[in-house]
Structure formats: structure tokens, C-alpha cells
Amino acid sequence: MSAVRSLEPWRWLGVPMVQALGVTVLFAIPLQLWGLQLPEPVFPMAAVFAWGVIRPSILAPVAAVIMGLFLDILWGGAVGLWALILLIAYALVLGGRSMTAGQSRGAMWIWYAVVTALAMGAGFLIVALRDKAMPSLLATAWQYLATIVLYPFAYRLIDMFEDADVRFR
User: Fold this and answer.
1) What is the pTM (predicted TM-score) of this model?
2) Which helix (H) or strand (E) covers residue 47, if one does?
3) Which domains does the chain have, with CATH numbers?
């Protein structure tokens, strides 16, 4: 267990937001090795999940919207789609926050996978309804798998700040 850090917004919201967006840009570089391209995991999903576990905040949904709009612009998607997906994930985590208190790392990883599946599933359905065509299941599945592998980053953020504000425990 690491030392508890102070809960200043720039530390638990700003720094992870910049890191998630920076790594997203890095993975968006069109680099191919042996004909394979880098995966496109949703790095902001790990930060959004951690923020919901750490504490309720009015700033976290604003940061999620900013990251979502950035993803929409970077990936060329419908403006607001990823913002909505990240807000759905944040809402799901906040809704189940009381169930996650004191859970093991494995149980939290499962909860992260469920939240990610529900949020990305909602996005899948929105795109299917908007375009009147089904998005690629294989591409969505690969993006989902690449995203749930990111849970250790969410766990690290949770571990750093979870006990910083005892009012929300």
C-alpha cells in the first residue's frame, strides 16, 4: 500500500487526464509491425473508473466529457459519443460504489470489466442506431479487451488516493 496523497484536484484528476490523453495520442500513431497496428484501448476509461471509486466529485464528469470530446476528435467519431460513454461508465461506478468498498483487486477488476462492457455496449448500440448498420464486432471486442487490460492503471490511481478523503468512505 502506498502512502496516502492529498486530494487536490490537479493530482487525482488533472495528472491522470493528461497522462491518459497523452498515451492515447501515442497509440494513435499509425505504426505497423509485421502488418499489425497498435491496439486502440480507451485509456480514459481507467481514469474514469478510478475517479468514481475514489470519491464523488463534480469535476470528474467534466474531465470525462473533455476526454470524451478529445477521443471523438482524435478518432474522427461522432462528437459527444465517447463523452457519453465515459459518463455512463462514471455513473455506473458511482452507482455501485458502496458495493466496491473493501473488495479485492480481482473483484474490482471484474467490476471494471463489467462497467467497461456496459458503457462500450451502450456506445455500440448508439452507433448502430445512428448509422443503421452494425459496427464491427471484432474491432469492438479487441478494443474492449485492450481496455480491460488497463485495469492495473486504474488500481494504481485508486491505491494512491482512495483513503485521502475519509468523508466518502
Assistant:
1) 0.88
2) helix 43-54
3) 9-164 (1.10.1760)
- Find, among 68, 96, 94, the residue nearest to 82 by Cα: 68
| Lookup: cell for 136 | 464491427
Tell me the C-alpha to C-alpha distance, in Å, between residue 94 and each of 19, 20, 45, 76, 127.
Answer: 22, 20, 14, 29, 25
User: Which residue, among 165, 169, 124, has the nearest Cα to 143 in the 3D structure?
Assistant: 124
If you average pLDDT over residues 105-123, what whole number do you get? Answer: 96
**What CA–CA distance (Å, rounded) separates 87 from 61?**
6
pLDDT digits (tens, 9 = 90+) for 4-62: 455 676 777 889 999 999 999 998 888 777 776 767 899 999 999 999 998 888 899 99
Q: What are the DSSP calls for 97-165, one per residue?
A: HHHHTT--HHHHHHHHHHHHHHHHHHHHHHHHHHHTSPPPHHHHHHHHHHHHTTHHHHHHHHHHHTTS-
Cell of 57: 466529485
